[in-house]
Amino acid sequence: MREDVRRRLDRAIWLDRAKYLGIGLGIVAAIGLAFGYETLDTKVDNKDVAGKVTDIEPLVTKSSVAEAEGENVIVQLDHGPLIRVLAYKSRRLKVGDEIQVVEHHHGTGRVTHTLK
What pTM was computed for the model? Predict the structure, then answer.
């Protein structure tokens, strides 16, 4: 085999290997980013905020047990936003009640609320 043909063949083989290596590294990086994002979402700062119940709606789910025991409570927070939280019917909340809500600020920027 001539020297220049052998060099071109070796170069083509290494380019093919580099292509597969690049694809593999891309997949590993995507998996690493997904795990990193999940780790960020588990870092949560909690803050108690006050609010006033503005509306109560029935809970609509596939589970009849949850529908029987739960309800959606619409709350106007003191600092402005209108949010929706889940509550047990046994709490007997009424429109106009002042309640405490926990505001969860996740590391990814997501904000969730739960009834205290």
Answer: 0.66
Q: 105 - beta bridge partners?
A: 45, 111
pLDDT in tens, 53-102: 999 998 888 877 777 788 999 999 998 899 999 999 899 999 999 999 99
Whole-Å CA distances, 23 to 20, 30, 58, 80 = 5, 11, 50, 48
Tens of pLDDT along 25-53? Answer: 999 999 999 998 888 878 889 999 999 99
Please enumerate, as own/partner, the contacts of 110-115 that have beta carbons within 8 Å and a separation of 24 or more. Answer: 110/41, 113/75, 113/83, 113/84, 113/85, 114/85, 114/86, 115/73, 115/85, 115/86, 115/87, 115/91
H helix or E strand, kind and range, residue 66:
helix 64-69
Chain-centre distance of CA 96, in angstroms?
31
